[in-house]
Design brief:
The chain is 95% helix and 0% strand. It is rod-shaped and about 85 Å long. The protein is mostly helical. The protein has one helix and no strands.
């Protein structure tokens, strides 16, 4: 294998590794964002319930 072929092959391997690495990172971040959005929705529901209970207690 000549030096030129070795450099081309190593460059190709590095590019493929970078692409898979970034796509993996992107997938993990999107999963984290979905999880965070679900947590925010749950917190909103809890806050609404607490506000509703507080309003009912104030009305009594």
């Amino acid at each position: 294998m000549t030096n030129e072929n070795f450099y081309l092959l190593s460059t190709l391997v590095c590019l493929v590794t970078l692409i898979f690495g970034f796509s993996s990172l992107n997938y993990k971040l999107s999963q984290k964002i979905k999880n965070d959005e679900r947590m925010i929705e749950r917190l909103d529901l809890i806050i609404k319930k607490l506000n509703k209970d507080e309003d009912e207690n104030n009305d009594k």
